[in-house]
Amino acid sequence: MSSERAPDTPGSAAAGQATPPVGDAVSMFAVGSLVSGYRIEQVLATGATGTVYLAKNPTLPRRDALKVLSADLSRDPAFRKRFVREADIASLLDHPNIVSIYNRGESDEGHLWIAMQYVAGTDAEAAMQDGTMTAARAIRIVSEVAKALDYAHQRNVVHHDVKPGNVLLAAGLPDDEHVMLSDFGVARAAGSLSDSGDGDSTVAVTLAYAAPEVIAGEAVDGRADIYSLGCTLFRMLTGKQPFYTAEGTTELARAHLNQPPPRISDHLSAATRQLDVVMARALAKNPEERFASAREFTAAAAAAATSLTESPPPSTARKATQATTNPLRLNTSERIRSISDSISFTPASLRRRRIERPVLILWAVFAVLAVIAGVLWTKVISSSSSEPENNSAPTSTTMATSSAAPAPSALVRLLPAGYPRGTCAALPTASDVTAAVSCGPNTDPGGPTASTYTLSRDQTSLNEAFTDTVNRASAAICPPNIQCPVLCPTGVSKQFGEWGRR
With a threshold of 0.85, does the pTM exceed it? Predict the structure, then answer.
């Protein structure tokens, strides 16, 4: 809800007359009215949750943005508690790149309100629409936003809704504009989505920029904002949201949970592989794999984006298929909801899908196990080739002869971490297999509950085993309506079957 400012564009609603009501969203106070001493001068934005006004401060010679909640929400006990809690969190932030919260209260009519800094200018989304967003400008803007995020994260505050529409650009030249991050109204303390102990886990996010762990209702920290900042930079560089081809909120949520990060180079020919790598790290599904700080991410992006031209992104015109948030409205009920609109939901409802995400990627298991077998085979051959020539042995017996232990025991020592002693057992092997083991649950976070590792005798055997596994696999629709592999009933397929049922 980028509502703390209004564009300076001549003829716009904010520059001239008040924004007309939209749907059920109506202005609660007329121009000239007093709200707890603030005199209303202009309507900046209207929405289903309330209205944002430009108002004259009752004691200081300045104008503030006054966000006033609707009467119904102001009377709702749970919403009142959440509104006060989140306003208090946001008010503790004092940074030049963060819109300041000045005061909060309740009007005589029973409306909750927040007074905040008014920023005259535009926002990053609007700058893209008018064709003035260059790569250099985008990098500079997200670098400023990164300063605000790192400051908030150091104070255990997560923004939760980083997006171009919440990045305000104060009036000035593009290379000297003041960048401010707004709408910390949905900010929460890091940890979980419900820190208050009142059982309220509802969170308002913009799904197109939401991190997987936010969607899944898992523990959240500042790295969720880094993911959103990565989505924001992707949008500002390419003119598209990361998963813009997704149709509907369910498909979009699944894309964030399961699809690999998109590549900038697929949209900008001048983009380097290095920039793709940087973006992939920022948009990693696992927070542990992302950058440690927002500024670390933007510094890496700046270094990798030097090859980009100064031209605007290729798709900045407003299209029906690429809807964007209107900076003058708040969750309007009249327009068709697009994937870029803010939504409120209880993330726990999607938690099961996040848990079942390994099922979605079982097709990749075939390739992973084949690669593991190849790596192990290559590693053994490599180690044997470095030994003195008189100690060498034929490839097919290298592992057995170069160690005092039988082949399965030597294979176990080469496996990834997370398999305690006794977890893996030897399997019967065919003539083209040196060793094979079946392992129980891996104790590392996210590790498989069951797996099979095979050491092929040579590259040809490895390729044949992989091809055979793929040929015996077929697709099935597994609950809840997702695709997963089904294998023919052989010894190997039983191992995959155990994994597929976890």
Answer: no
